[in-house]
Write a structure and sequence with these properties.
GO terms for molecular function: DNA binding. Helices cover 73% and strands 0% of the residues. The chain contains 17 helices and no strands.
Amino acid sequence: MASNPAARAINNAMYGLARSGGFGVHRCPQCRYAGTVEAGALLRAAREAAGISLRGMAERTFYSRTYLGLIETGQRPVPAGVTAAYERVLGTTDLGRLTAAARSAASVDASALSDVAAMLASIRRVEDATGALSVLPAVRGMSAMTEEFAREARAERTAAAALASEVTQYRGWLEHAVGADTAARRSLATAVDLASESHDRDRLVHSLGFAGYVAWGATGDYDEVIAFSDAALGVRGSHPVLAAYARMRRAELLAARGETGEAQRALTAADEAAAAADGVEPPEAMYWWTPGFGAVQRGGVLALLGETAQAVEEATAGLAEMPIEHRRTEWLASALRRVDPDLTGT
């Protein structure tokens, strides 16, 4: 893989991240029970995916809030009775199997990975409504668990690596959203590494794009960010929506750098990629990408190019097309501020 230009760019970009702290895996410093932090985090993730507070779960299961909090943070083991109580409240029979997989990562199977992916999708929607800080602890636990799956799975290691990349990338995004950029860069470095291991083109393009996004905000190192962009654009055969996103990000980077001519050409290429992706269902990890959001992102590029009135007009039109549930999210607010500080989704 290292013989092609895209791979060399990936290596260079990952070296830059390694200098900032490497590819560390999250560990809970308070956990006194080996193997329980992942199982406890799984219960927390399932609860939060259902939109149930810890207090609400305590009331419904007849366990104390303090006791459940210790279990969910890995400071107490997970008894079978607690797992059964969570299953009853959540209306599922899958948690017992998933907690068993968390305790013995080597035994994880395709069904368990699918259940974790569904849980992740639900947590993303919870974040849309409640913000990054509310779901970050649960996602950190899921990240540790899925990374263990990727290392230990006997039968599904490639699929486990792809899922771990997605979860860890999401963790990095959440860490960035709450201002923890050093942790975010470590998480995204791990996500890129896992995507490469999984040989999943979509995961690789997506993780490289987010790694570059965070690197730009954290360091302003243009060469490093362009290396990420080169690597993402060099991956052939990725999902059309991911290709459109990567090209729009490239236009944004060039515009931010003041390279007006290059940025305008990149924007034309991004428009062509967006047209090719029109009507194509995005990957689950990019559920937030809609034509309306694409218009907001394009408005951000135009604003950097000094075309403020056109930027606001396009972003406002795009905003009107977006789903209602996306309009109050933190990530949309961030994108709108790049168009105009006074532009809001409400």
